[in-house]
Amino acid sequence: MPQVQRIPENAHNNRRLLRRGLWICGLAAALCLARAKAQDDQLNKVHVPPPTTSAPVTAEPAGAEAPAATGPDALKIHPGSRIRLNVDMVLVPVTVTDPMNRLVTGLEQEDFQIYENSGQQKISSFASEDAPVSIGIIFDLSGSMSSKLIRARQSILQFIKTANPQDEFFVIGFNDRPELIEDFTNSVEDIQARLATVRSGHRTALLDAIYYGVAKMKDARHERKALLVVSDGGDNRSRYTEGEVRSQVRESDVEIYSIGIFDPYAATPEERTGPQLLNDLSEETGGRLFRVDDIAEMGDIAEKISTELRNQYMIGYRPKDLTRDGKWRKVKVKVNPPPGLPPLTIHARTGYYAPLH
Quick one: which of 321, 307, 315, 355 has its CA closest to 335? Predict the structure, then answer.
């Protein structure tokens, strides 16, 4: 079964020592349970209990096509993001994992430090809750996905079924160009029916699809926003450039997670650089790239991503520099593990643009 490190809350003076003992016990129990299920579950899935705190796409798709690219400002997204500046408060979503790539929950405000442009900031707010998310699914339907289409479709449905019931989703399929398969909905049945009709074929306009997905988020109902990209290779058809997409992603409020089904014997330069492209876009937004070694693992990986989105810390601070100059501000979050824990890894957005007015 999935394993997770939980650090229990403690109101007593010996909080640190008790947390360490409970964590070790919990880890030992989780390892025993995992061994019992080893033959049925080859992937170390992550599962975290609920927090106690607070028309078909074919070779020529017929859906709503992405607007034509006319330059970097064709679909301009206004700054202000999940790392969000609102009334001079910056909110940073944070995921924490251990050396075995498992989620770590139950950390407290005192365990974190946050910096802007190398200057330490005072944390003003701290929360960890399962708030609803607006999620866009970017689904690769190029010809190279033909043998992986069924598994990829199943993993998307698994992702949706394990999400917060209040989450909303849209689905964009792409080959030669991106197409809207299903608009915002929280109906699993509607998405399942639409995905059952898709077919693969032609080339890969990955960058155009990501650009369209970020732009589509202007219609989102929730403040938290994320894209799930499911693809097997690099871009070989887009009209938008990598630089234009990177700029748009930086200005957006969207976190990007990617499931990469990469061919180890990639024949073209685009296929060889595809993994790095998805990794860079994901990490810069605070998301992650998950590489698929066995397509049978895709469902478990999708569930793991869903769990991460439901178990993030939200750290807020008021910047010491309140200059409204529109410049890029680097943000870095650090965690100081409580005694007894191994080194932990932070996944968080790398910065934001200050407002102009």
Answer: 315
